[in-house]
Design a protein that fits this description.
43 residues, alpha+beta
Length: 43
């Protein structure tokens, strides 16, 4: 993925156990997605 790419909508569970969607998060304005490897694993 590169800056400016268009991605399909997706859903995931947040830290409070609620399901959120990309479109739902975007209602509040722009956002940054950050992905990192699982803690304590090779990256």
């Amino acid at each position: 993925m590169n800056e400016g790419d268009i991605v399909d909508d997706f859903s995931l569970v947040d830290q409070a156990g609620r399901t959120v969607t990309l479109t739902g998060l975007l209602r509040n304005g722009p956002l940054v997605l950050f992905f990192y490897p699982k803690a304590m694993t090779r990256g």
